[in-house]
Amino acid sequence: MSFVSSVEVPVPSVMGLLEERERAARQRVEVLQAELREAEAAWERFVITRQTVAEVLAEPPAGEEASPAGVAGERSARVAGAGPGSVVPVWREGLDPGALAPDYQRLVEVLAGSGEKMDCRQLAAALGLEPVPAKVEGVRSKVKRLAARGWLVEERPGMFSVLAGRAGGS
Question: 23 pLDDT exceeds 90?
Fold first, then answer.
C-alpha cells in the first residue's frame, strides 16, 4: 500500500507578490533618478563650459580696444542669437524674453497673454501641441527650467504664471 503524503506548499499571496514588485520598481526608479541627476549635472557643466568659452572667444584679443559697453563693464540685456538649444539665462532686471530660445519665448508669451495660472497640459494645448504625455512632459521640463531661473513662478505644484515685468512689456 502506497501512501501519498500531502505536504502543503506555501503559496505566496497576491498582495505579497505585488509588494515585492512594487519594491523592486521603486528601487529601479530611485536608481534611474540618481542617474538622471548625475546626467543633468554633467550636462549643465558642459553648457556652462560652452558659454564660458563662447564669452572668452567673443572678447577682443589682448591689446585691442573693447567696445564702449565692455569698457563700462555693462552687458547687453538681450542675448544675441538665442536659438534652439540655447541655455535659459537667469532673469535679471532689463532682460526681456528675446534672450530666450524661441520655444521658451512662446511659453512666456502664452502665460503672459493668458494672465492666468496654467498647468502643463493647458500650456501644451495653448501651444498647439497634442496634450499627450510626451508633449506635456516636454513643456513641463521647459517651464520648470524657466521657473528655476526666475522667469516664471510655480505658485502651487504644476501651476505656472509669469511674474510682473518678466514678459517684456507687462
Answer: yes
Using alpha carbons, select from 159, 103, 152 the residue that is nearest to residue 127.
Answer: 103
Angstrom distance (rounded) from CA 20 to CA 22 = 5
> What is d(CA 149, CA 81) in angstroms, rounded to the nearest whole number?
19
User: Which residues on neighbouring strands pair with residue 162, listed in sequence order?
Assistant: 152
Find the helix or strand (DSSP H, E) in which 155 lies. strand 152-156
Taking the C-alpha atoms of residue 9 and residue 50, their distance in angstroms, rounded to an integer, is: 63
- Please report, as a single letter, which amino acid is at residue 76: S
Give the predicted TM-score (pTM) of the model: 0.49
3-state secondary structure of 119: coil
* Residue that is written with C-alpha cell 502665460 in the block: 111
